[in-house]
Amino acid sequence: MRPRGPLALATTMLATTMLLVGMPLVGMNTAPALADPEWSLVPDGNQVTQPPPVEDQQQPQVPAADDNPFLSDPDGKPPQQPATPPPSPDRSPSPSPASASPSASPSESPSESAAKPAGTGSASYAPWQKALPGTARVVRERRLNPRMLDILISSPSIGQMMPVRLLLPKGWSKTAKRTWPVLYLLHGGADNYTSWTRMTDIAAYTENLDAIVVMPEAGRAGNYSDWHNAGRGGRPAWATFHTYEVRRLLEIGYRAGDRRAIAGLSMGAYGAMKYAARYPGLFRFAGAYSGILATELPGIPAIIMNAQASEKQDPLALWGDPRRDRKVWAANDPMALAAGLKGVSLYISSGTNSFLGPLDPPGSPWHPAHLGEPISAYTGKAFSERLNSLGIAHTLNLYGNGTHTWPYWIREFKNSYPMILAALGLRGGGPAKTQPGDSAGGDDWRLDNTPPLTPPNAVQPAPLPFGVQAGG
């Protein structure tokens, strides 16, 4: 399928826009990646230091000191340089500023932000430190409130210590005789593992969910993949981290069962659908909200590589060259992997243009990030047609007007929530609240009559991302 007319122009302009403003599309969220800062300091005030780069391997991009929550105190000030190094760790194994994007409106609960977290494990460990030698293991826990538990994993697949946030069900304990089903929620690009609890009411919404909710770190531009690195492989291996290390540690030490669902937004939408397709039988539900679901369609490889470059990554390190390394690209393309989705409950949604929609406040500034919607709809439509050709049932909700922002992702998650419950075998399960064709433009939208790139009555675009200058 080839993009025609306005869509081809949209693809070209979006790639150009990303180069100018340094904007990732695959997980577009231009807000600074914020998180609870309590892990930034060890008790004696020592500063968390970053490990040196691993030779010949791509490293996950650590946020800069001015926007990295793990390198600042609760007031946003960098901690003092340590006078002495942290003590040697016990290596025994054991189970904002105003956002530049219209998506930002933090909704972190008072209990999460005000309570002093209780932690176990070595307090000298913090996210993005160099991993310990040996196998993956949990090296630290932080209890933020009765349900919210952050764990820190020393990951050989990433080469660093990676945080994962858990929302625990009522009655959960490590010593329980039962296991619980698991819902994985994946974050978008230029963001981190706290985004779902920071930007949504997920904690309150799942208060009575008899399942473990898992929100793992995935890097600002990790793209839920084991990176190719010119054929060498190696770090970062995000897919191995998520589907093996995190999964097995939760099963071994945190009573996670084998009924799993996965969902994500933008870059996380891609990850959710790719994981479900590439690892058949691992997930019973996959939900994709505004994500790229066909990475090899005309125009899409350039967008993905430009997004990587905007995050200061080698564009070829992810999957290699789109032509020379076509097998690698195909191995990471949800559409090429679609046959692996047989038997999986699927929900796919996206806006079809960059217009403001019903969830945008009147007069909201238009932002180039909203161009992510027609691009995700372009790939979603092609992906849906591929599923139809394979006889794989799915719910497709292309809802017309709507921006690349959290209000729409929250709505779509809640629309698909009955499907998640059904896949996990829990009460209240059923079909999605929004069925194919019910929403504006669902069945009538065509790839060759995409609306104009910018609404005729659009207000001035939102400010560029923090620290970015036009044309820089």
Q: Can you put this structure into words, describing what you see?
A:
The chain is built from 10 helices and 10 strands. It has a 10-stranded mixed β-sheet with strand order 1-2-3-4-6-5-7-8-9-10, sandwiched between helices. It is of the alpha/beta class. The N terminus and C terminus are likely disordered. It is globular.
Topology:
Blueprint: H1 6-21, H2 110-114, E1 118-121, E2 137-143, E3 148-155, E4 160-167, E5 180-186, H3 195-199, H4 202-205, E6 212-216, H5 238-253, E7 256-265, H6 267-278, E8 285-289, H7 300-310, H8 326-331, E9 345-350, H9 372-389, E10 395-398, H10 406-423
CATH topology-level name: Rossmann fold
Arithmetic mean of pLDDT: 77
- What is the number of domains? 1
CATH class: Alpha Beta
Radius of gyration: 21 Å
Summary?
The protein has 472 residues and is α/β, with parallel strands linked by helices.
